[in-house]
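Deliverable D4.2, example record:
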Amino acid sequence: MTNVTVNITAGTDKENVTAATLGDKRWGLNGGAQFGQPLAVAAGDKTITIYKTTNPTSIAQARNVPDQANVTFNVTVNQNAIVVAVA
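Output generated by the structure prediction step:
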């Protein structure tokens, strides 16, 4: 398991984000952790989905969770797209 931290770092819709999921883990509203806090996620190919209050209300992207102790996904959220940087 990898300790994954998800941060919403920038973008035109940054303030409209309510939650994020990666595989079966959730950050933010009704999540197991707040943004900036780690959750244990199994390594491998997953889908990260960002949920927001504006249309479209969700944006998904395939990501790989590396098999290592810790990883951080810094997400830029714009109206119709997300950019995920691995730190």
